[in-house]
Predict the structure of Ras-related protein RABA6b.
Amino acid sequence: MDDECDYLFKAVLIGDSGVGKSNLLSRFSRREFRLDSKPTIGVEFAYRNVRVRDKLVKAQIWDTAGQERFRAITSSYYRGALGAMLVYDITRRSTFESLTKWLEELRHFGDPDMVIALVGNKSDLSEAREVAEEEGRGLAELEGICFMETSALKNTNVEEAFLEMITQIHRVTSQKSL
Ligand code: GDP
């Protein structure tokens, strides 16, 4: 960890293949959109320093790097993660229907206090929408997790979604250490 950082957080990205996880991560960590992403095997992660109130937090965000295609995500992927960004594609209903399975997996492997942020990505493709925004919001309310629609392509709400998750992680961990 950098000397100037107060905390290091690990958070994971999960969701079906092709929903836009790696592009969300490259937006957040490098502020660029990767047009042709070639998923490689093996976990990838990126760091970014974020200021939360008076603290400097180093967020370490893990990406499945295509492993979700082979159901090869194991408990080590979730180990030590304080947050999870659960992503679906608003233009592919099946990716929304898979959320139940991903939530079960998160609750099985993840820390009980893990902060979960539900993200409906590809909001720029509204003409191809198969999942209404209200459905995403409704599920998030039911599960007690936060929700946002994003577009990695247009860079809409990406920063906001990551920062919301990181701020909540900070809140949970600082309450724990009181
Ligand atoms: P992953 O498998 O979940 O990591 O998904 P990728 O990040 O590799 O993205 C899958 C495909 O969706 C790629 O062709 C991306 O260019 C595209 N994509 C990702 N995010 C967006 C978005 O917000 N809008 C649109 N239109 N396409 C996107």
Summary: The mean pLDDT is 88.
